[in-house]
Amino acid sequence: MDGIVKKQFSEMETYIPGRPIEKVKEQYGLERVIKLASNESPLGPMPAALDAIKKYSSQLNRYPDIEATILRDTLAKYYKLPRENFLIGNGSNELLRIAGQAVLGKGDEVIFAEPSFVVYRMVADFFEAKSVPVDLKNHTHDLEAMLAAITEKTKLIFICNPNNPTGTMVSRTEVEDFINKVPEGVLVVVDEAYAEFVEERDAYPLDLNYSVNKPIIVTRTFSKLYGLAGLRIGYGVAPPSYVAVDQRIRDPFNVNLLAQVAATVSLDDKGEAQKRYQQNLDNKRYLYKGLKEVGLDFVSSQTNFILIDLKKDSTLVFEKLLEKGVIVRTGEIFTERYRNYIRVSIGSKEEIDIFLEAIKTI
């Protein structure tokens, strides 16, 4: 396809997901495999979501509501903000890409932390923009350095908060101060995919009021706490003028019917959400304790995963863990400087025990 496909698509790196469970079972002849690589919920969808999926599955011959009206109304009520401020995406990833599509041209610059979510670099590549990675400081966003990296060519800045893969966060005050210092003509996207897991709620409140009527987009997802990763649905908050642009760019019927109804009832079940938050917190502390007993250092996390320092090549450990039926994420995928790290999702206590037992023998 040389000479037909655009050069940037022929040369850009492909997104590498966590290894599928069935492939690992087949490759190593295993009956039991646990996946702690993709920060998925060990609990599955909420019971109310499963009921809604069953109820509405007979309507799959119909196109979904193109404006996701009921879900946007539910989000508006939940956050006490106007419906006109809400975006709905095919996963929050789609919202990140559309942001790039809306503002980037060839040669424009995109600033993001490194390591951080790999999709930010992909967004830059999609639109022939230049990636400007800024090193983390103590595994955390260095917002001052990111401000210093802004030039007249900067059009888009991504802040992953809490950060993937390190699990660290910057406070709401720090984010707002940063936004206030960003010059006009630059769009800031704050990716809060892991917001619901944050412990430090005083420094990181869950409201979205700070995002209204500012040149920023805040994105969140139903993939993590709510357990709907397989349905691909996320949302964002932005000024109504940007929401109108998003609606022009996105694909028609971009979010399927079952995703919309499952997300709506999940958001309504605050009791189940709190239960899941607490279980993640308890299991995270359980994993902390186990890692200390094994003698492994790790980065304290505000999310549903932990970054662990193996002090040796993580790719070698990764392969040995696969042989024992444990799938994790290696650090060199994010940046070569993190080659000695693995990222491990916080699974059930049973899964944590299996991981700890496996890592002891490597």
From TrEMBL:
Pfam families named in the record: Aminotran_1_2
Keyword Transferase: yes
GO MF annotations, alphabetized: histidinol-phosphate transaminase activity; pyridoxal phosphate binding
Keywords, in A-Z order: Aminotransferase, Pyridoxal phosphate, Transferase
Any GO BP: L-histidine biosynthetic process
Domain Aminotransferase class I/classII large, first and last residues per copy: 32-359
Cofactor: pyridoxal 5'-phosphate
InterPro entries: Aminotransferase_I/II_large (IPR004839), HisP_aminotrans (IPR005861), HistidinolP_aminotransfase (IPR050106), PyrdxlP-dep_Trfase (IPR015424), PyrdxlP-dep_Trfase_major (IPR015421), PyrdxlP-dep_Trfase_small (IPR015422)
HAMAP family, per the entry: HisC_aminotrans_2
Protein name: Aminotransferase class I/classII large domain-containing protein
